[in-house]
Automatic annotation (TrEMBL):
The lineage of its organism: Bacteria, Pseudomonadati, Pseudomonadota, Alphaproteobacteria, Rhodospirillales. PROSITE patterns: HTH_LYSR. InterPro entries: LysR-type_TF_proteobact-type (IPR058163), LysR_HTH_N (IPR000847), LysR_subst-bd (IPR005119), WH-like_DNA-bd_sf (IPR036388), WH_DNA-bd_sf (IPR036390). It comes from Insolitispirillum peregrinum. One of its GO terms (biological process) is DNA-templated transcription. GO terms for molecular function: DNA-binding transcription factor activity; sequence-specific DNA binding. Pfam families: HTH_1, LysR_substrate. Belongs to the LysR transcriptional regulatory family. This is Transcriptional regulator, LysR family. Residues 6-63 form the HTH lysR-type domain. Gene3D superfamilies: Periplasmic binding protein-like II, Winged helix-like DNA-binding domain superfamily/Winged helix DNA-binding domain.
Length: 302
C-alpha cells in the first residue's frame, strides 16, 4: 500500500505549534524562525484543504479539525522517536547532558553524584550549570533540573523534591552575646538576603516572617545581599549572618550540625525541584535511570 503523507517538515511544524500553543515556541523547539513555522503550517493546510488554526491577534486557536488531527500526530512522532531509540535496545552507555541550577548543583547534586557514577559507570555525564533554563535542542541537553511550579508545556516533568523554608544560622551565633532565641533577637544580627528571590516565593524574603511574628524592631533594609543561593549558604556557614534556607540547600548542613534551624518556624515552599525533558526522549534508558535516581536519592536522604 502506498502511503499518502504530507511533507514531514510541515507535519512537525504543525504538531509543535499545536502542542505548544504558539509559532514562536514551536520555532524555538525546532530551531527555525516563526515565519518558517507559519509557512509550513500554511502549506499543510493547503495540502489537506482544511483550516487547522484560527489566527487571532491574541494568539492561535486550534479548529475542530486541528484538535482531531493533533493526538495521532503526536503519538506518531513519539513512536518514531521510540523506534529510533530502540535501535540501541536497553543500552545505557553514552553521553547524558544535564542542565542544573548553580545553587542546586553546588549544595545538593555534586555531593551525591558519585553514587550515580558508581552505579552507572557506562554513562558519561556532561553538566551545564546555568541560572537560565537551557534550550534542549539548541544546547543539546537531555535532562533539565528546574525550580518552579512544575508546569512546563511540551515537556515531561517529574517531581524530584518539595521544600520547606526556615531561618538558619551558624551555631557560633547562638553562643555569642545575643543568642538567637526569639525572632526579636534578629535585631542584633546581620540578615542575609536573596535579592533575586521570585515574588511568588515570598517566604524567601524576611518581611512576611517578621510581620507574621509581630516583629517591628528589625530593619530588613540592612544586611548582606546575594544573587546566588550557594554563596549565601557559604556566608551562613561562616557565621556572617542569618539566612532563610531551603531544604535542598541547607538540609544536610542542619543534619550535620553546621547550621541550626531557628525559632521552630517552617513554611512549605511554593516552588519545588523537577526533572524535565522533551516528551519524545523521556523514555530513553539513560534519561530514565538518571531521573529515577534523582527521585530515589531525594526520597532516601533529602
Amino acid at each position: 500500500m502506498v502511503r499518502r503523507l504530507p511533507p514531514l517538515n510541515a507535519l512537525r511544524a504543525f504538531e509543535a505549534a499545536a502542542r505548544l500553543g504558539s509559532f514562536t515556541a514551536a520555532a524555538d523547539e525546532l530551531n527555525v524562525t516563526p515565519a518558517a513555522i507559519s509557512h509550513q503550517v500554511k502549506s499543510l493546510e493547503e495540502y489537506l484543504n482544511v483550516e487547522l488554526f484560527v489566527r487571532l491577534p491574541r494568539g492561535l486557536y486550534l479548529t475542530d479539525d486541528g484538535k482531531a488531527y493533533l493526538p495521532d500526530l503526536t503519538a506518531g512522532f513519539d513512536s518514531l522517536a521510540h523506534a529510533t531509540d530502540s535501535l540501541h535496545g536497553s543500552r545505557l552507555d553514552g553521553l547524558l547532558a544535564i542542565s542544573v541550577p548553580p545553587s542546586f548543583a553546588q549544595c545538593w547534586l555534586m555531593s551525591r553524584l558519585p553514587d550515580f557514577c558508581k552505579r552507572y559507570p557506562q554513562i558519561d555525564l556532561r553538566l551545564e550549570s546555568n541560572a537560565e533554563n537551557s534550550h534542549f535542542i539548541k544546547d543539546q541537553i537531555d535532562v533539565g533540573i528546574r525550580h518552579g511550579l512544575g508546569r512546563y508545556p511540551g515537556l515531561r516533568s517529574r517531581l524530584i523534591m518539595t521544600e520547606e523554608i526556615y531561618p538558619v544560622a551558624s551555631p557560633a551565633l547562638l553562643a555569642g552575646a545575643h543568642p538567637l532565641r526569639t525572632w526579636n533577637d534578629l535585631r542584633y544580627h546581620t540578615l542575609l538576603h536573596d535579592y533575586v528571590a521570585n515574588d511568588r516565593e515570598r517566604w524567601l524574603t524576611w518581611e512576611p516572617w517578621l510581620d507574621l511574628n509581630g516583629i517591628h524592631t528589625v530593619d530588613v533594609s540592612r544586611g548582606l545581599q546575594f544573587n546566588n543561593s550557594a554563596m549565601m549558604v557559604d556566608a551562613a556557614l561562616a557565621g556572617m549572618g542569618v539566612m532563610l534556607g531551603r531544604t535542598a540547600l541547607v538540609g544536610q548542613h542542619v543534619r550535620d550540625g553546621r547550621l541550626v534551624a531557628l525559632f521552630d518556624s517552617r513554611r512549605t515552599a511554593d516552588f519545588s525541584y523537577y526533572a524535565v525533558c522533551p516528551e519524545a526522549t523521556a523514555d530513553k534508558p539513560r534519561i530514565r535511570v538518571f531521573v529515577d535516581w534523582l527521585v530515589q536519592t531525594a526520597q532516601s536522604n533529602g
